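pls read this stuff:
=====
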Amino acid sequence: MPTGLTRDAGWQIGVSGTLPHPPAAVWDFLTGPAGLARWLGPGATLPTEVGARYATEGDGPSGELRGYRAGERVRLTFDDTTVQFTLRPAREGAATSLTFHQERLPDAAARERQRAHWKAVLAAVAEALG
């Protein structure tokens, strides 16, 4: 089976990095307006109740919240795919490992496009946090 192709979730991609900020600071940013605009899309608001819908401005993604663990993880449908971000403490809580994971991608080309997208998102989050 090619790299990135799974039996159950189709094509998937994961991108991660370590940010020099505690998990609470990264969580607050990612779930606040400026962070949501960077990873989910402009105008996004994040529900906290599983099953609730969200939308972004214009032709941006929309979907449903599938999982929510405050301070740790958000999982949601992202148009026809599923996206999740996960935070884990690193370096004794002084830093945070941030992972974006997307599954149910249609093909290998979409996987590579999304790899570039999530790398750019991770870089934008790191830059915004300083």
